[in-house]
Amino acid sequence: MKRIGTTNTPVYRIVVADSRSPRDGKFIEEIGTYQPLKKSDNVSLKLERAEYWLSKGAQPSDTVRSFIKKARKNTPVAA
Q: What DSSP string describes 2-62?
């Protein structure tokens, strides 16, 4: 996750990055955002892009892993 936002108002971008890159440094693709101070609907995530990168071997952080799990749970199953 890449931190943006001002002091005392954090906003994070969920990004795909090389593990050698610094936290706010170069990244490959932005796949969502997280606003921790917002009460509800504080995560937006492109689930299909997250699934793509996971299939390519990406390792999500614990926080991002929980976001992906919640997004999968809230996505309706196609019949």
A: EEEEETTEEEEEEEE--TTS-TTS--SEEEEEE-TTSSSS-EEE-HHHHHHHHHTT----H
